[in-house]
Recover the amino acids of this structure.
């Protein structure tokens, strides 16, 4: 799969609030959820970023852990979705202003 369309779900952990603020100010990642604080004072959040941006997030006092390939997960979920209207009766006739087209 090309990195051009890959989105990763990563967990970003910063050693303290100042490091986190600087990171968010500089990189502006797509944050997915709330920021949590660990007992040691470190702060972490999940973000949705490209592989290149995930590498760019890593710096002194910040660790980035890849949790999931969000693009692959999304495509797998889309494959589970059926086609058509599962609630429509078998003999339903479309209604509306469109022209009825015959199969040939």
């Amino acid at each position: 799969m090309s990195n051009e369309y890959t989105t990763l779900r990563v967990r970003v952990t910063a050693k303290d609030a100042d490091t986190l603020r600087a990171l968010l100010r500089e990189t502006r990642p797509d944050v997915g959820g709330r920021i949590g604080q660990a007992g040691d004072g470190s702060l972490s959040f999940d973000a949705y970023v490209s592989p290149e941006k995930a590498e760019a997030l890593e710096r002194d006092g910040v660790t980035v852990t890849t949790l999931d390939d969000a693009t692959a997960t999304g495509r797998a979920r889309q494959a589970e979705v059926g086609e058509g209207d599962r609630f429509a009766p078998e003999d339903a006739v479309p209604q509306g202003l469109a022209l009825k087209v015959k199969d040939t």
The CA atoms of residues 94 and 102 lie 13 Å apart. Strands lie at 8-14, 30-31, 36-37, 43-49, 62-69. The chain has a mean pLDDT of 86. The longest strand covers residues 62-69.
